[in-house]
């Protein structure tokens, strides 16, 4: 790694190298593209094999010929579709609840000094840093102790528990970046704190809340480890796939995942464009 | 803070003449604001994060079985049992986790460095491309690797038919497949904090090193690397903890010989239904990771790790 080190400063300082990028940056550029390729290969496999023929109804390792049949029957595996619906329900539910719970705490942490702040910080950090296996095992221990049957509700509870911390961190970053003078101006103009919040602060932190909500949604819909502990007989989309790996997965798994992938990419690009337009 | 207080007090004083009592109420009310704002989250995290951790500890010290029921109490023998039976999987988890995280760091750093220093106008495009795996479910990514690495898959199957590799060559169900899967899945999580840290480095400092005749290697080792340390440490924490606790890569890409502690915890809960054993193993894992994180935070400062982890 050391050989690849020269920074831009060095390139400027070295006579004769100022005209264009040196050898090292060019090698690094090639390297970065190789890394991007590495990141994309499994995604390409997923998309390509969603168009592969599969006479047995299970994805095969060999290329048997192009077909769009699986896209025509994307929802034909009923319990897979049910699992996807469960995942979407939990993702929406946990997104909304964790934003409602987490946003006020983020405001408190960003704007007030109070006793217990350090402890709160630690708990939030622990919630994010805790390994998923431990969070899952502890929630299952808790539900077993309470004799609470596992199902969609316990999955939702678990997802809110890890999403709250992420919402707090994301919204807090947005609130901390705000100019307090805006609040003061609102107060000087006679706004009560309540009115000032909804008319001034809330619109300004809304992008942070939206970002936090999207992150919560993404974390929830992708979670496998924690969900696997608290799901009981209920299956979410990742859990269904995990369970089907041993017996072979139907091509619909790749089809639906391709849909989710494209949906996520399109949403992100739209979001980026909207944010760029709104910049002054 | 003080300016806002003054403005508040100014606005309140006219009314306060009429109702001093109400003013005091409002002050008490104001002090309560952060607590009221925090209350819902605190209650939730207490109920669904802290209490479950306590009940896991309690369950690990209980005896009984799911049918008869449990008697809770200080049956700490379970911990010794857990270590005695599964120390191999515990050690393996930390070994895989450390190795995978180091490899992830080594492959992520040059790219993060190049994007931050030479990415130009397209920085966010490069980052977006490296983040693309985020848009595919974790389990699908791992299944896709199982496809790619399969003994008779389109990659090795083809190479074997050309005679380029031995017919008996395989990677699946070895530790290299598991570590490779961990590396792939941790990549995007490591590039991001590295990029943020390297991007923050003041270019003038780097230029100064060059002006003072530091050669590229020492500029990197003595200026850039130390300044990017927050990203290195935050990413290490994030990826290491995730890798040590993972069981999905070991399940899909590995075999019985690559079982990690997460697999054993899963099996103890759902196959053997030995809940105290499962809880004891999770508690041991949590304890070991807490010690590691504590030492880490002591050496480095929690605030900064937190900042980057976010």
From TrEMBL, chain A:
<comment type="similarity">
    <text>Belongs to the binding-protein-dependent transport system permease family. CysTW subfamily.</text>
</comment>
<keyword id="KW-1003">Cell membrane</keyword>
<dbReference type="Pfam" id="PF00528">
    <property type="entry name" value="BPD_transp_1"/>
</dbReference>
<keyword id="KW-0813">Transport</keyword>
<dbReference type="GO" id="GO:0055085">
    <property type="term" value="P:transmembrane transport"/>
</dbReference>
<feature type="transmembrane region" description="Helical">
    <location>
        <begin position="254"/>
        <end position="274"/>
    </location>
</feature>
<dbReference type="GO" id="GO:0005886">
    <property type="term" value="C:plasma membrane"/>
</dbReference>
<feature type="domain" description="ABC transmembrane type-1">
    <location>
        <begin position="84"/>
        <end position="271"/>
    </location>
</feature>
<feature type="transmembrane region" description="Helical">
    <location>
        <begin position="61"/>
        <end position="78"/>
    </location>
</feature>
<feature type="transmembrane region" description="Helical">
    <location>
        <begin position="224"/>
        <end position="242"/>
    </location>
</feature>
<keyword id="KW-1133">Transmembrane helix</keyword>
<feature type="transmembrane region" description="Helical">
    <location>
        <begin position="30"/>
        <end position="49"/>
    </location>
</feature>
<dbReference type="InterPro" id="IPR051789">
    <property type="entry name" value="Bact_Polyamine_Transport"/>
</dbReference>
<feature type="transmembrane region" description="Helical">
    <location>
        <begin position="90"/>
        <end position="110"/>
    </location>
</feature>
<keyword id="KW-0812">Transmembrane</keyword>
<feature type="transmembrane region" description="Helical">
    <location>
        <begin position="122"/>
        <end position="146"/>
    </location>
</feature>
<protein>
    <submittedName>
        <fullName>Spermidine/putrescine transport system permease protein</fullName>
    </submittedName>
</protein>
<feature type="transmembrane region" description="Helical">
    <location>
        <begin position="152"/>
        <end position="175"/>
    </location>
</feature>
<dbReference type="InterPro" id="IPR035906">
    <property type="entry name" value="MetI-like_sf"/>
</dbReference>
<feature type="transmembrane region" description="Helical">
    <location>
        <begin position="196"/>
        <end position="218"/>
    </location>
</feature>
<keyword id="KW-0472">Membrane</keyword>
<dbReference type="InterPro" id="IPR000515">
    <property type="entry name" value="MetI-like"/>
</dbReference>
From TrEMBL, chain B:
<keyword id="KW-1003">Cell membrane</keyword>
<dbReference type="GO" id="GO:0055085">
    <property type="term" value="P:transmembrane transport"/>
</dbReference>
<keyword id="KW-0812">Transmembrane</keyword>
<feature type="transmembrane region" description="Helical">
    <location>
        <begin position="32"/>
        <end position="51"/>
    </location>
</feature>
<feature type="transmembrane region" description="Helical">
    <location>
        <begin position="169"/>
        <end position="198"/>
    </location>
</feature>
<protein>
    <submittedName>
        <fullName>Spermidine/putrescine transport system permease protein</fullName>
    </submittedName>
</protein>
<dbReference type="InterPro" id="IPR035906">
    <property type="entry name" value="MetI-like_sf"/>
</dbReference>
<feature type="domain" description="ABC transmembrane type-1">
    <location>
        <begin position="90"/>
        <end position="296"/>
    </location>
</feature>
<feature type="transmembrane region" description="Helical">
    <location>
        <begin position="94"/>
        <end position="115"/>
    </location>
</feature>
<keyword id="KW-1133">Transmembrane helix</keyword>
<feature type="transmembrane region" description="Helical">
    <location>
        <begin position="219"/>
        <end position="241"/>
    </location>
</feature>
<keyword id="KW-0472">Membrane</keyword>
<keyword id="KW-0813">Transport</keyword>
<feature type="transmembrane region" description="Helical">
    <location>
        <begin position="277"/>
        <end position="297"/>
    </location>
</feature>
<comment type="similarity">
    <text>Belongs to the binding-protein-dependent transport system permease family. CysTW subfamily.</text>
</comment>
<feature type="region of interest" description="Disordered">
    <location>
        <begin position="1"/>
        <end position="22"/>
    </location>
</feature>
<feature type="transmembrane region" description="Helical">
    <location>
        <begin position="127"/>
        <end position="149"/>
    </location>
</feature>
<dbReference type="GO" id="GO:0005886">
    <property type="term" value="C:plasma membrane"/>
</dbReference>
<dbReference type="Pfam" id="PF00528">
    <property type="entry name" value="BPD_transp_1"/>
</dbReference>
<dbReference type="InterPro" id="IPR000515">
    <property type="entry name" value="MetI-like"/>
</dbReference>
<feature type="compositionally biased region" description="Low complexity">
    <location>
        <begin position="1"/>
        <end position="14"/>
    </location>
</feature>
């Amino acid at each position: 790694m050391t050989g690849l080190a020269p920074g831009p400063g060095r390139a400027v300082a070295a006579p004769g190298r100022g005209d264009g990028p040196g050898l090292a940056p060019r090698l690094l550029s090639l390297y970065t593209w190789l890394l991007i390729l590495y990141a994309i290969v499994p995604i390409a496999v997923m998309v390509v094999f969603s168009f592969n023929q599969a006479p047995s109804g299970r994805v095969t390792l060999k290329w048997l010929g192009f077909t769009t049949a699986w896209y025509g029957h994307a929802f034909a595996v009923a319990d897979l579709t049910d699992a996807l619906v469960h995942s979407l329900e939990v993702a929406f539910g946990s997104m909304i609840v964790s934003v409602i719970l987490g946003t006020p705490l983020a405001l408190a942490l960003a704007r007030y000094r109070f006793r217990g702040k350090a402890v709160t910080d630690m708990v939030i950090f622990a919630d994010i840093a805790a390994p998923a296996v431990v969070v899952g095992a502890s929630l299952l221990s808790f539900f077993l102790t309470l004799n609470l049957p596992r199902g969609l509700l316990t999955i939702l509870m678990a997802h809110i528990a890890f999403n709250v911390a992420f919402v707090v961190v994301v919204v807090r970053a947005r609130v901390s970046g705000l100019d307090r003078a805006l609040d003061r101006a609102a107060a000087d103009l006679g706004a009560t704190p309540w009115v000032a919040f909804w008319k001034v602060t809330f619109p300004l932190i809304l992008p942070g809340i939206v970002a936090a909500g999207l992150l919560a949604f993404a974390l929830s819909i992708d979670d496998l480890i924690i969900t696997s502990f608290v799901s009981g007989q209920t299956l979410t989309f990742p859990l269904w796939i995990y369970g089907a790996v041993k017996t072979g997965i139907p091509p619909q798994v790749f089809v639906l995942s391709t849909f989710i992938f494209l949906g996520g990419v399109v949403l992100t690009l739209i979001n980026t464009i909207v944010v760029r337009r709104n910049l002054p | 803070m003080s300016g806002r207080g003054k403005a508040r007090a100014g606005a309140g004083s006219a009314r306060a003449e009429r109702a001093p009592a109400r003013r005091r109420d409002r002050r008490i009310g104001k002090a309560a604001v952060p607590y009221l704002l925090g209350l819902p989250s605190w209650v939730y995290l207490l109920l669904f994060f802290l209490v479950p951790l306590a009940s896991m500890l309690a369950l690990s010290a209980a005896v009984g079985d799911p049918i008869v029921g449990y008697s809770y109490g200080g049956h700490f023998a379970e911990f010794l049992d857990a270590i005695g039976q599964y120390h191999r999987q515990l050690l393996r988890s930390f070994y895989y986790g450390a190795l995978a995280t180091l490899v992830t760091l080594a492959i992520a750093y040059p790219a993060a460095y190049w994007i931050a220093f030479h990415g130009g106008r397209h920085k966010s495009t490069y980052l977006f491309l490296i983040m693309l795996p985020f848009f595919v479910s974790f389990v699908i990514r791992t299944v896709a690797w199982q496809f790619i690495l399969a003994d008779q898959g389109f990659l090795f199957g083809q190479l074997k038919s050309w005679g380029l590799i031995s017919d008996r060559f395989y990677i699946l169900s070895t530790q290299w497949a598991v570590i490779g899967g961990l590396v792939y899945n941790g990549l995007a999580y490591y590039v991001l904090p590295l990029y943020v840290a390297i991007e923050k480095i003041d270019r003038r400092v780097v230029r100064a090193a060059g002006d003072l005749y530091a050669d590229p290697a020492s500029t990197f080792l003595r200026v850039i690397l130390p300044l990017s340390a927050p990203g290195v440490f935050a990413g290490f924490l994030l990826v290491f903890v995730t890798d040590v606790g993972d069981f999905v890569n070991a399940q899909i890409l590995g075999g019985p010989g690559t079982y990690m502690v997460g697999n054993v915890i899963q099996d103890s809960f759902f196959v053997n239904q030995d809940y105290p054993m499962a809880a004891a193993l999770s508690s041991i894992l949590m304890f070991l990771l807490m010690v590691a994180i504590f030492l880490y935070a002591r050496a480095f400062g929690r605030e900064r790790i937190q900042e980057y982890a976010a």
